[in-house]
Design brief:
alpha/beta, three-stranded antiparallel beta sheet, 17 helices, 39% helix, binds 3-methyl-2-oxobutanoic acid, binds zinc ion
Length: 514
Amino acid sequence: MDRRIKIFDTTLRDGEQTPGVCLDIHEKLEIAQSLVKLKVDVIEAGFPVISKGDFQSVSQIAEHIRGPIIAGLARANKKDIDAAVQALAKAERPRIHTFIATSDIHMEYKLKMSRDRVLAMAEEAVRYGKQFVQDIEFSAEDASRSDWDFLCQIYGRAIAAGATVINVPDTVGYTTPDEYGALIRYIKQHVPGIENVDISVHCHNDLGLAVANSLAAVQNGATQVECTINGLGERAGNAAMEELVMAFYTRQNYYKAITNIDMKQIYRASTLVSTLTGVDVQINKAVVGDNAFAHESGIHQHGMLNNPLTYEIISPEVIGISRNALVLGKHSGRHAFEDRLQQMDYELDKETVNALFIKFKELADRKKVVFDRDIAALVSDKPSVQPEYYRLAYHQVVSGSQSVATATVRLETSNGTIERASCGDGPVDAIFKAIEQAIGFPIGLKDYQLKAVTAGEDALGESTVWIEYEGDVFNGRGLSTDVVEASAKAYLNAINKRLTVWGQPQEQITIGCE
Ligand code: KIV
Ligand code: ZN
């Protein structure tokens, strides 16, 4: 009988700790909904005590998302646990995930606490949380660099205090498959009560071993794996969910383990997370990279034509990629469009479909063929910030090799429209400066990215812009076949996000052509 492995998704917590990633509440809810469709067992929704925004997003997810367990992270102290309990109050199946570091290096230099103090705090935290929530996960941070007997002691105390899951994080991505597998086996043999709880693993990818380490842990008794979509996470990231799930599926004969994941949702979830976070999926990334199913060499292509199994161990349809991605054009009608949305598994209300159909027609007029990727981009291209303080109503840019680029923008606001012009170092710089002048305060542009959604000279351009204010980073997205317009929309999207969090600043500026 194959073992059922639980999938604990931490895209919204550890994944959100990816440098440069900043998701607003609507984006987090959208990702949580796609995790429900994926049928993950646990969604780690955030770290409630860390900020007002995190608290609100955990509460919203707890209130609106049904199906998976919703976990909130908390250090091993009352304040953190109280915040998690409060944020999870409306969850159907709440879990508190509490942690404390157990390696000598962390205890001496970070916590400045003795082993006895750490043991006591872990036990107190689990006991305290248990008064409010039945399901308590206890993590020993930096477990893979901790003394094994001390680890067994702390897990034993946590279980006795009521922990339902014990997690063994490889916090700094230091371990190796053999060593980690042996540690899990050791814990299984030496911790009293371990047979009554889930053994969870949480691997970081600093040596590129996160997935291999997680798989080795499962072979040695782990029952839950913690992972993120596209392997997002602190530093080099966490174990990638799609890789773990497809390893269990493709090598079921070897691992004798299954998950509950609906694999058809994998590609869509990966694209959504990449779009919303602005973090591209590496082109040759396993399972979801653009090249994962591309066959370049003649010998491979020949084999593939005779029998796809010659060179393809996963068929793209299994993860929700359709082989004939070419779908619609300007002669396609509403029926064909709705049909395609359905095939792509979007459940949208009538109003949204109407609005999307208008956008689709505009796009089909500009672009010869519309691919699934274009449709996915249109679906995800909605103002994610409410209210939208500034909206691009009109723009005009003049640029050339012999002239200074100049841009004019008209922005719509709740107080009417503002029109400004500026020059700049190229068209994008000019339009960003015109926008900055129109809104009247300085924007700390941190990074800017532009890419084509699909191939071809008429492709949709997708721009991502990162801005920074008071240490907070906000990313914005914009989509258009006109790349300057896509950039301006992305810039305004980031500005609107900043205004939602920080309000209108006092400083005013005037920038003009010199
Ligand atoms: O990497 C880590 O140790 C963590 C814990 C909070 C589980 O993310
Ligand atoms: Zn982590």
